[in-house]
């Protein structure tokens, strides 16, 4: 039978309850939260507090460290290591842009054009995760080795002259240059770009493309005005998932780079593990965290993703 | 915009804006979605493609829009062959089934989309006028998801109409709305169509929707056009059992041709004789051949068996016993067990109700022979009925 009201019927009033709800029921959600909260306390809150206190301690390894609220450590760390900070941001940003340029077409292909190859390509995207991060990065050392085929080809094509002029490579070498580090970062974080991009592209209703075409949009305009704006959530989460870990990464810089390409991750690692200057290392970690948080907040604000469906 | 559109309404002689489908067909592998068909939609008319789901009506529409490439045949808009043109180069616009509004754009930008793509810079006035036409002027800055279904539907119509297409294609645009809203939008769409004078091609599975809105209806079944005509013509003179059952309800009686005298045809069914105008029989009628005789439920009068003598001479009559009756206000619907037809349906207007007409009562059903129609007996009696058997039969027909 047709309903006679236009508006959906108002939610039916809750059935009268015979028994008052059990006391236990009210606490159930909190009990269910407990494992997660415990996990966060043990592995996030506690280390953070410990690090924060370390960063304002003074002393030495022999005499032990005491909390003296010595905030000058932050300033000293920043003034000594700002080039590494800048380098980290620059490398991570370059790698993010490269990942976006490489990943978007691939994600688009998987989402809209791959047909029955879709699953195979997805597996290929994820396959590198079956090997250790370290091994994969070491493999790039071989790929970019001096006198290796890649370097030879780049040399023959005079690409290295151009990149050398830009300061990305030096002489006949690719290894131990900024280019090598950015290549490693791009390679290692590419799946983190592709997966969110694919997810958001795949969610786009194909009829929107048809509708745009029906409304006189050429295929390129359909992409500019419909597909790309609707994939913005994927672009934003992909760039964040790439940029944030890439900024703090030290494996690529230490395996593929040189002393001149050190990133902030390398400094923190050596302060903690070799120099054993715990306060400086902790302070650097906090500065890095704050910087990333600030950049990410700004980025999300600018891209206005909260406005997207 | 109304002035421009109404003046573009053609004279009877001007057929420059007709949609002509010539031998157009679509196959997917070994499955034929649309058998090659010819169809002409006159400029300025409201045309409906009616059929059950999977009958090929949406595919036909999409081939006009250019969203589906026909396997054979051509599409002409006026004198222009648009078969090879991509959708964005065709002067047609579509209202999609689920509206397909751009979720990242507000109502104003959704409506302005087509204009902007054609390089029109000052869209503000046109968009405002169009939104007024569909009564959404207040909602211009809202996002689609903030609107109700009916409002989204009107945005979809506005977004298509603002481009002054030669043809507006509507793909089940009212399917997602509740019944009352659907009725209102039917009137609304009809009003807009009359106002702007653009050709509307409307795809629907709702026979009532097709009949109330369209000037002409093509009933499609299993990839073919079963019958094409005005709603009244289709209803009064169905030529196949599918059309007879799909549009409203028909009582179909299996009968044998007895004699053909003058314009009338006399048939024998379950011991009785029935007459029908020869012109209303779409089957070849030779003596001894089988035909299906049809009669619409509301054409039939119901008289209690005790008063059988009062039934005027010359009317077709069938006897039976009332199985059930349901009172629905304006009329009472009876199901009568007859030897001729197991479930004879009769709709009697509630003018003077005879209290004796209750389940179990013996009755005489009688009607004017002129209202009777004849169909080819070589088809399933159930084709086009809503039951499972009907759909299966209809699909195989």
Compose a concise summary of this entry.
Chain B: It is an enzyme of class 7 (translocase). Chain B: The complex is composed of two ATP-binding proteins (PotA), two transmembrane proteins (PotB and PotC) and a solute-binding protein (PotD). The complex is a heterodimer of chains A (309) and B (397). Chain A is an all-alpha fold and 309 residues long.
Descriptive overview:
Chain B: The complex is composed of two ATP-binding proteins (PotA), two transmembrane proteins (PotB and PotC) and a solute-binding protein (PotD). Chain B: It catalyses: ATP + H2O + polyamine-[polyamine-binding protein]Side 1 = ADP + phosphate + polyamineSide 2 + [polyamine-binding protein]Side 1. Chain B: This is Spermidine/putrescine import ATP-binding protein PotA. Chain B: Part of the ABC transporter complex PotABCD involved in spermidine/putrescine import. Responsible for energy coupling to the transport system. Chain B: It comes from Streptomyces olivaceus. The complex is a heterodimer of chains A (309) and B (397). Chain A is mainly alpha-helical. Chain A has a single domain, classed as MetI-like (MetI-like fold, Orthogonal Bundle). Chain A contains 13 helices and two strands. Chain A has helices spanning 23-55, 72-113, 118-126, 133-143, 149-156, 159-166, 178-202, 206-214, 219-230, 232-248, 251-256, 264-275, 278-303, and strands at residues 57-60, 64-67. Chain A has a two-stranded antiparallel ribbon. Chain B has 397 residues and is of the alpha+beta class. Chain B folds into two domains: 2-236, 3-Layer(aba) Sandwich (Rossmann fold); 243-396, RNA polymerase II/Efflux pump adaptor protein, barrel-sandwich hybrid domain (OB fold (Dihydrolipoamide Acetyltransferase, E2P), Beta Barrel), CATH 2.40.50. Helices cover 24% and strands 32% of the residues of chain B. Chain B is built from ten helices and 20 strands. A six-stranded mixed β-sheet of chain B has the order 6-7-8-3-9-10, sandwiched between helices. In chain B, strands 13-12-11-14-20 form a five-stranded antiparallel β-sheet, with no helix packed on it. A five-stranded antiparallel β-sheet of chain B has the order 15-19-16-17-18, with no helix packed on it. In chain B, a hairpin with a 3-residue loop joins strand 16 (316-327) and strand 17. The radius of gyration of chain B is 25 Å and the shape is elongated. Mean pLDDT of chain B is 87; it is low at 1-13 and 387-397. Chain A binds chain B through residues 2-6, 205, 207-208, 210-218, 221, 225-226, 229-230, 232, 308-309, and chain B through 65-67, 86-89, 92-94, 96, 98, 100-104, 113-114, 117-118, 143, 145, 159-160, 163, 178-181.
